[in-house]
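Model it.
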Amino acid sequence: MAESIHPFYESHRGAMEAALRQRLDLADAMLRERAHLSDIDALRHEVMEEFAIVLAQMPYVGGAAGRMSDFFMRLMSFMAIGRVLRRRGVPVPVIGDIERESYAAQCLAVPEAQRLASGRQFMSPENRLMLREQAAGSATEEHRQAYPGDFVYDVVEPGPGDDFEFGIDYRACGFCKFAARHSDEELLPTICGLDFVAYAARGIRLQRTQTLAGGASHCNFRFSRLPSKTGSDVISIHATPPCSDLSPSSSSPQPSPQAPPAPPA
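Modeled.
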């Protein structure tokens, strides 16, 4: 029996599909020049069909009350793009470049004032307090049983000599759980690489030296504020592939992290 789309995701399907179409528009030239594909209309149709499958596979993690629901809704369309490009023989590093650069262009289409305001809110003491409360809830047995596909994480405060304002250690993540269930492990670096773009678009510097997808015990996200040249920071970050710490290990797949909600749906 085919899986059905959860009503929460179905209610947001139109916005997610619109965002996906925009991403495909932004990736058009790269698909032709870097992936050496010419039948772009057929590719678009295939990606939209694959996204319908992804939607039905997406785990429910609490809907509007769940912090990570927004992460799934904003980034899972890249899994559909990756699946289709992989089937067409496009190398994973090329898929990662195309997805990061199209996502950067989409993020930068949001007015700078709006993006930077979102970044200030994310870095605010009030949000950090809320993150600590959410982190504590994510680790409870009740939450794990209710939402087995969700993330589990801790908030990290800087110690003496640290050059970040705060951090998040992701100890379990829905994207790697999803990938393990649906044999998408090869695509995890392309998803994790989007984090750098999403944070930089808000004026936030992300540092990360290890990931669950790469076989580590946790993903160590460390946040600080970027200088004001947000657009050029995003371009420089995605121009240098940030996935060197994300190569899937030969061990069994483990969860990976995610970024803050991105401006586009």
